[in-house]
Amino acid sequence: KAREAELRGAVAADELVVYFQPAVALATGELRGVEALVRWNHPVRGLLGPGAFIELAEETGAVVPLGTWVLRAACREAAGWRADTPAADELRLSVNLSPKQVAQADLVRTVESILAETGFPPDRLTLEITESVILRPDPLTIGRLEALRDLGIDLAVDDFGTGYSALSYLRSLPVSVLKIDRSFVTGIADDPEARSVCEAVVHLGGAFRMTVVAEGIETAEQAAALIEMGCTIGQGFYFHRPLPPSEAVALVRREF
Ligand code: G
Ligand code: G
Ligand code: MN
Ligand code: NA
């Protein structure tokens, strides 16, 4: 309870910070997008990653105001880059949505109003949902996802491959991006099963006309294996770590 109050207070006190991890074209390293990743600049414990607080936020529902804060902050920041560097107009912004956010009746209104307020264009925004959301989607959830898609927003399935997405469902959902979970990318060189999952997701993406993004690329060998499979976009420490806003804006200026 005390930690929940502290977390809710952090949102109110603007103790949260958004970092941005670049996503690149695997073949060239060119910047294609950024993923917003929340950090908590805790007054005593220092800069905390989501591992230290997202689970509690999800359990207590604090993730809903937190997620709204992240979406607004990320859209505002990225709208600033677009004004500063007009050539970056195709750069995509990805923001994670927690299952609790997807379950909110007012999700679509919240997203629409943040886009209107910040001026960030819906067709450059990707919202990442977790595989658990699409496992057994209820009609209201599907309706919300379709409404987001109809605004021009792309929907990505994050950590893909870790759950058991019904493939028949996947095809009928308004999802256009699959993000291969880092655990499979990590094993791509030495673990034939991990490699097979990567190949399967790349092929699935091709069959369903979805973009496949590989996460957690840490070596040139992993990048090369993914390129050979036909995967075109990736993220990972091999290319870029998550960057604080000041470094993200400098990267956008340098790249465009
Ligand atoms: O930044 P880091 O790699 O430590 O993120 C760890 C996890 O936290 C990832 O699974 C990521 O999806 C999640 N995460 C990061 N930022 C957010 C956010 O703003 N909202 C939600 N719901 N999850 C986030
Ligand atoms: O779950 P999600 O994919 O949204 O979260 C991305 C998380 O993965 C972030 O917390 C980010 O810091 C982390 N991450 C990104 N690239 C790498 C990587 O190459 N290696 C490792 N170990 N973690 C990574
Ligand atoms: Mn993500
Ligand atoms: Na992920």
From TrEMBL:
It comes from the Bacteria. Residues 1-256 form the EAL domain. This is Diguanylate cyclase/phosphodiesterase. The chain holds residues 496 to 751 of 761 of the full protein.
